[in-house]
Design brief:
CATH topology of the largest domain: Rossmann fold
Strand order of the largest sheet: 7-6-5-8-9
Helix content: 25-40%
CATH class of the largest domain: Alpha Beta
Strand content: 5-15%
Number of strands: 11
Shape: globular
Radius of gyration: 22 Å
Structural class: alpha/beta
Number of helices: 15
Largest sheet: 5 strands, parallel
Order of helices and strands: EEHHHEHEEHEHEHEHHEHHHEHHHE
CATH architecture of the largest domain: 3-Layer(aba) Sandwich
Distance between the termini: 33 Å
Length: 455
Amino acid sequence: MRRHVLFGRFGDTDRADVPVARTETATAIQLLDIHGTLDHGVGRALRDLARLGIHPTDTGLDLMLLALHVHAADTKLSRRLESQDSWTREIRLVVPVSDEQLWTSTAPTLTRALDFLTGDHWTIHFRPRTSGTRPRPAPRQATLMRPEYDEVSLFSGGLDSLIGAIDTLSADRTPLLVSHTGDGATSEAQWHCYRTLRDHFADNPLNRLRLWMTLPKIKIEGSAREKTTRGRSFLFFATAAFAASGLTQPVTIRVPENGFISLNVALDPLRLGSHSTRTTHPFYIARWNELLTQLCIPAVLHNPYWNKTKGEMAAQCADPALLQTLIPTSLSCASPNKGRWKGTAIRHCGYCLPCLVRRAALAHTPPLRDTTEYAIADLTERPLSSTTAEGQQIRSLQYALARLAAKPHRAAIAIHRHGSLADVTPTDQHELAQVHLRGMDELGRILHGVRTRPE
């Protein structure tokens, strides 16, 4: 187990002293490319926004660079190799920013948010950008017909974000869609969905910011790639806030996610805490809204579907015909590339939790039909191994469904086990408990007759 410190450098002229303890392993992140422009996808995002007439503030850019540091630490530090318990890492970041005093005041909020999100121990420090290290700004471009965006909306290529975009566009609003692309399958799903939306809503000046940040140039000696990516929503939210900081009016950042998966109540005792994802949990979104207020970025994160299951989102979609067309294009699977190792095509596995929630949502939502191609097309065809990936989540769900059927009142307690709901009113907590019950009911219906057994 090693403690790590990651710190950013603005080129070879940036020689600011960054103290490193003897117990820490230090890694420098070079923020500029050989041409002196921002690297790792940030410079490209600035240029793409400039073409839309959007120019993020210095604070917005600082936030994007902080997210780069977080993403690097989260994806480049192996939990198995760099922690005592194969999970909890100790990470310190030192980020060069435009206003050290402002950012230092946000450190408590940031550490609460990141500790909760990833299950690691984070320490966040800031330093001023040294003289001569200000990154070159993206060129300002004249735009005769600059659209006024009503909101910024996260667009992952999944079913929930697709429904969110359809509902927003059907209401004749103009969102700026924000996507982060990390692999080819996700990129392809996002592109096909976006292109179809552009064609369908041809009169709407819809645009998208697409961030590609895979960080191949950043290496941490002695470690290995980490695949759990619990911190991915920090980068996603930061990209949206980065764009929002350059808009001319306050906006809502829409986080389209069904309430059942936002709560993500642990299915069994082994998946408590950050071992289940917390990417849109109410506590985490509340910390982000604190952060945006502290940074004076005029935006508010909001999940409009916090009290709906995925099935309810699909059933109430504003344009069911368009949604039906795009169902096989959208991508919900946690690991769509896993089939590559077996020589099969990239597709939904059908048995991870996101796939199961998707199947449950579309199985009983007339007039919609689930036209998704799953690796396991029929869950009842044969017994599924509960000791391998194909049956582990299903067995956990069967266990949780049995417990809930015996004592339905446990839902009101279970929703608190995955994270604090102190920011949620008692009335809304009751709503969340009901969402959990309805979401489990959706899953129970598709698991009727499914058999699991150890092998």
